[in-house]
Structures are given as structure tokens and as C-alpha cells.
Amino acid sequence: MGPERQNVKESEAATRGEPEPEQARESSNRERRQRFRRIWYQMKRNPLTIIGILMILSMVFVAIFAPVIAPHPEDRAGHNFEKGAVAPSLEHPMGTDTQGRDILSRIFFGARLSLGMGVVVLGIAGTAGITLGLIAGYVGGLPQTIIMRLTDTFLALPGLILALAVAATLGPSLINLMLAIAFAWWTQYARLVHGEVLSVKQEEFVEASEAIGASRIRVMFREILPNIMSPLSVKLTLDMGFVIIAIAGLAFLGFGAEPPTPDWGVMIAQGRQHVINYWWISVFPGLAISYTVLAFNFLGDGLRDIMDVEVN
Amino acid sequence: MSQLDSDPFEHLPTSDDDLLRVSGLKKHFPIHGGILNREVDRVRAVDGVDFTIPRGKTFGLVGESGCGKTTIGKTLLRLHEPTGGDLSAKEFKPIKRDMQIVFQDPSSSLNPRRKVKDIVSEPLVVHGWGTGEERRERVDELLDSVGMPVQHKHKHPNQLSGGQKQRVGIARAIALNPQFLVLDEPTSSLDVSVQARIVHLLEELQEEIGLTYLFISHDLSLINNVADIVGVMYLGRIVEMGKTEDIFRNPQHPYTRALLSAIKPLNDRDRELIPDTLLAKGEIPDPRDQPGGCAFRTRCPKAFEPCDGDEPNLYETGDDEHAARCYLLDEEHRPDGPPW
Is B60 helix (H, G, I), strand (E, B) or coil? Predict the structure, then answer.
């Protein structure tokens, strides 16, 4: 045993000369570059991802700078009843509605509303669903049974109908609309997170954290959650499109913004009676919705391929 | 360890020196089934285990996979709630500071999403140790003491080799200066050359900070190198326990002999250590469906009538502090003539 031990000590000393500081930093930089290159390669193979990102960036740009870039006021100040509905022209690229307001400007402002509401809805539904999913998956036992049976119950009802019922009960307002959709949506995240947690919690780093004495909250949010972000971010991206459709749909039915607000769903509803004579009043907001949904779907699909995850 | 060769009697476990005493430890995993999800059966992973570990020593736990050795380690750390039994370690104030674990697979035991420095400082953060600056210094110190170049602290685990990952796992385990480490097959997922270095590191740390180890392994030659005391486990019980040299020189339980005969000797000197070939028959039984009496009797080439009856007690073998759970050692039952 003696001589063997000696050898080990020597080889230890010889091989412990692992990378020098500069080399280590260099190699760390190199790995970062490699990772970036891999993502870029994946994106190039999947150009729709890049198109999706560009489309979303254009939407965000329009939403942020709407007051600057909109050619006309979007609200009552833009009323021009004498002018009425004018077909698309140079002055009004997407025409005007029956009250003479510039559709393009209203769509720009509507982007603020749609994106903002989408983010809020996903924020509420995501926070609730992720937290409950983490508890169900990690704690198990009775909380798991209660939470998962609850999501099963929600699953039995079509989401949009449920949101409609809740919105109708709460009364029409932007906030109620968002709450209603979030209420119908959180189960998606609870289910996804629950399933992912069940597999991640088998990993030994979760036990290691428990052995250290970390609290359950810390284990759930610091150890487990970061490891399920890939499927979660894909799901959230894909859902952004669906949520925007849901918001527009309920607004169309009159459960969202009140008329002067430039909401895309409301705009479609307003043009509904005139769709034969003044098609542009409804069609352009409709195209805006399609554009947004398509953008998030492109990005979501791309992310799914790049991160190589299964959602649903 | 190596001191044992020079003076085997100096390190006899005396009660004052015992860091950890485990008696009657049981861990049963219930199996739920049926419509009402009631307990229909249970896996007796650990079924009444007693041992003590003297301060500064290494207790080696060996056995086939599924015999419950890892469950013992995890139950000691309360990663599993014990079904029964008693653990006394009076001096451990907050138990999770004085007792830590190094896992088998460092790729799985380090969170891939966190950097080395965050992984190593996690115990410090959880227990509110020091200020941010002090913690950063402690991380550097810990990485240095496990032989990791400090600049690796900004890396993620997947950028490290297996041996480096295990060093990070060890650094995390010793971050809060524990007294006792459970080493759950700490080298079995590593390359052979790296294994030796990790074992050497663990021995160094034991000397430097006076750690006490529970070293779990299925590798008998490794256990022979590192352990002071060895417990041989079979189906949730310790079937033979004694000082390492006694176990390897004079194995008494047929199961221990079977395990030893499965080692391939490197040279003639080692070959002498290995008893006459004695192979266990068949496979390890399903722990849900254990044979009554002696658990090993279904595979034991030496099984005879009393083995079907009650479970054998631990019988002294004649060596100091060396006992085995086998009727062959019982004066009443033993057939005529020497057992072997």
C-alpha cells in the first residue's frame, strides 16, 4: 500500500497543474463563444426563428414609440365624422373608421394594449401556475392531489368559455378581462411545471441542497426552477400568441376595453357591420393580430427546436 | 487507514471516542397501491442496523447494489425519515452543519444551472455564514483545499471533468466544517486514475480537519484501502462487522467470503488474502420478498437447518470487535468440525 500511495501523491502533484489563470479565462471565453455559435447555427437552420424575433421587435418598437410614429391621434381627437370611413390612401395607409380615425394609428396604439395585456396575463397565470406546479411536484402528497385534481377540473372546461364566464361575472373592464384569462390559463403552467419537477427532483443536486439544509422554497425556486426554464420559456412564448387572440376575442364580444380605446378586438367588432362596404376597418386589425400571433409562434417553435424540449 | 497496520489496537472503538452511534436503524419504503392508495407492501431497505463510528475514523459499508447501504447514508442525514431506530450524535448541534454528504455521481449532484462558486457557497448562504466578502474568500479557500484551481469558480459544472466535479462536491460538503461526512460511492463514477486522486484527497482532508467518514462502496479493494472498520451489508442488515484487517484476513460470514472471492487478485500476496472460492448462488432476492430466517440462506452454499428458523444474531468470531450474523459461528448449531 505504501509505494502505491506514494505514486498517487506524485501523480497528483504532476497532474494538478490544471489550466493557468489566463488559460482558464480564455477557455471560459471560448466556451461562451462556442455556445453563442451553436445557437446562431441553430437559428440559421431555422430562419423562421429570426423572422419571429424581428417581427416581435418591430411590434415592441411600434408599441413603445406609438405616440411618436403614429401619423394621427388615435382617440377622440382623431374624430372626423364628416370624413367618415375613407378607403386606404397615402394619407391613411389603412383607411379610417366610421368616425374618421386613422386605422394605422389606432393599430399602433393597440399594439401597446395587446402586448401589455398579454404580458400581464402571462405574468399572473405564469406566477400562479409555476408556484402551484412547483409545490405539487416537489412537496407531493396532499397538496399534489389537490392542485392536480383542480387542474384536471379546469381542463374539463374549454379555456375560452371559462374565461368568458368569469369575465361576464366580473363585468366588462380591462382588468377583469385579464384576470379572467389568467384564471383560465394558469393550469397549463401548473401541469407543465408539475411534470418537469417530477423528473428534475430525482436529480441528486436536489438532495444535495436538502442535505445542506436549504428550505423547501429555496430548493424549489433556486435549484429546480432554473432547470425547467427551457420548456417553460418555450411554452410562455407560444402562449403569448394564444393569449393575445383570447384577449382580442373576448374584447370583440364586448368583455374588454370600452370603445374609444384602440383595442384590436374592439376595432374588429366596430367594423363588423361595415365589413362589406368598408372592409379595411376590420381587416387591418385582424391582420395585426395574425402578425403578432405568427411572430410568437415562429419564435416559440424555433426556441423549441433550439432548446430541444417537448412542450405539452 | 495505514496507521492501522502499525498499531491495530490503538484505535479500538471506545465509547468516549465514538462520534456517531446508530442502533436499530430501520428504513422501510411503503408501496402504495389499490384504489384507496393504501400501503400494500413495504421495502425493508434498512432493517435494524447497529454500528458506531469512532471519531476521526472511516467506517466502510460494503454490499451489492440494492442492499441498503446508500439508504443508511441518506437516512443518517435525514434525507429519508427513519422508520425506526436511534441515532445519537450528541455533539451535532444543527445536524445539517455537522454532517454532510458527497454523492456518487457528481454530474447529477451539482446543479447544471449554477456556477461553481454558487454551488460551493450555497451551504454558507443557507446557514447565513459570514458576509458576502467572507463567503467569497471562503469559496476560494475551499476550492484550494480540494485542489481545484480557483479560477474554475466561474465555470458551470458541465465545463468540468468528472474528477473536478467531484472536487466541487467535496468542497461543498466541507464548506461548513462538518465533523462527519457520508461518502456515497464517491469514486465509482470516475475513471480509475481519477479515483485514486479523489481517495487521496479525502484521506488528506480527514487528516487535516479530523473528519469522520462513512464510506459507502461496493468496491472491496477500495474499502480495504480506506476503511478502519468495515460493515458488510446484505438485504438491509449488517451481516458482518469488524476491523478492516480482520474482515479481509478472517472473513466469517459466507456472504463476505463470497464477495471477497469475487475480487481478482493482482498478485500472489493479495491472492493469499482471498478465501477459497465460494460463490453465492443466483441473484439477490427482491427486498420486498425476503426469505425468512437468515436472509442469505437462499444463496448460501453453506446453508443448513437452523438457517430456516429465526434470523441469526451477531456471533463473536474470536477476533476483537469482529462479529458475523451466521449460525456457523454458533456453538449450539454449528455442525461438527470447523466451518470452513
Answer: strand
Tell me which DSSP letter residue B212 carries.
E
User: What's at B288, amino acid-wise?
Assistant: R
Cβ pair B122:A212 closer than 8 A? yes
Rounded Cα distance between A22 and B246, Å, is 51
Cell numbers 442502533 correspond to what residue?
B23
Query: Per CB distance under 8 Å, which residues of A are interface residues toward B?
Result: 1-2, 5, 8-9, 11-12, 15-16, 18-19, 21, 24-25, 28, 31, 203-205, 207-215, 218, 223, 226-227, 229
- 0.90 exceeded by the pTM? no
Superfamily of domain B2-92+179-329: P-loop containing nucleotide triphosphate hydrolases (3.40.50.300)
Domains, chain A: 21-307 (1.10.3720.10)
CB atoms within 10 A of CB A28: 17
Q: What is the pLDDT along chain B (340 residues), one digit of tens a residue?
A: 333 333 333 333 445 577 888 888 888 888 887 777 777 888 888 888 888 888 889 999 998 887 888 899 888 888 888 888 777 765 555 566 788 999 988 889 999 999 999 999 999 999 888 888 999 999 999 999 999 998 898 999 988 988 999 999 999 999 988 889 999 999 888 888 889 899 999 999 999 888 999 999 988 888 998 999 999 998 888 999 999 998 888 888 888 888 887 776 656 665 565 555 566 667 777 777 777 778 888 888 777 777 887 888 888 877 778 888 888 877 666 665 555 4
Can you spell out the DSSP letters for B155-176? S-GGGS-HHHHHHHHHHHHTTT
The whole-angstrom distance between B79's CA and the closest CA on chain A is 6
